[in-house]
Design a protein that fits this description.
By secondary structure, the protein is mainly α. The chain contains eight helices and two strands, in the order ααββαααααα. Helices cover 64% and strands 7% of the residues. The longest helix is centred in the N-terminal third of the chain and has 20 residues. It starts with 7 loop residues before the first helix and ends with a helix.
Length: 181
């Protein structure tokens, strides 16, 4: 199975859909929701690529929280998978944002598998690079299924996972070729 290639038109359509979903959810906080939803979607896509269970997703309002801006509860099977899933948030911020907001992801990734930190970080970076359109599509799906408090029901979470899983799983082959699957 090959990692899919995305055309500029497809990527533009995915970006537009993400923008629409974030604007519809909270126009005044568009930047916040776009940044947090894509960060959390990187964890989701990495989790699906590693065949982990995604148990919960939330994205908090910048107006009501002083703590974590979002979160994904994931249950992986192997330490290096857990590390890649954690480090995917760091890798996303490294490519698109500010890694200061992903310090907990770095620490968690290191705690999961400190012996292979560099290898796991390389895998997370490659996954984020290769799966960027899938991550953005996942973020749009997440934003479209959150309730007004930024939580997602288990039924809506399953809808998102069913939509994204086949696309994310295509990236598992890449992880296997790098010795991380």
């Amino acid at each position: 199975m090959r990692v899919p290639q995305y055309t500029p038109q497809t990527i533009a359509a995915i970006d537009m859909h993400l923008t629409e979903q974030c604007m519809k959810f909270a126009p005044a906080d568009f930047d916040h929701y776009k940044a947090v939803s894509t960060h959390e979607a990187a964890h989701i896509v990495a989790g699906l690529a590693c065949d982990a269970a995604i148990l919960e997703v939330e994205i908090n309002s910048p107006r009501t929280t002083k703590h974590a801006l979002g979160g994904v509860n994931v249950s992986g099977l192997l330490a290096h998978h857990d590390a890649i899933i954690c480090l995917a948030g760091w890798a996303w911020e490294e490519a698109h944002g500010d890694t200061r907001g992903a310090a907990n992801d770095w620490r968690a990734g290191k705690e999961c598998d400190s012996k292979n930190l560099d290898r796991n970080l390389d895998a997370a970076r490659q996954l984020v690079r290769d799966a960027e359109p899938v991550i953005k599509a996942c973020a749009a799906a997440v934003m479209g299924h959150l309730n007004r408090r930024g939580k997602m029901s288990s039924r809506n979470l399953e809808k998102v996972l069913t939509q994204i899983r086949p696309h994310a799983r295509r990236h598992a082959l890449h992880l296997a070729h790098n010795g991380n699957a």
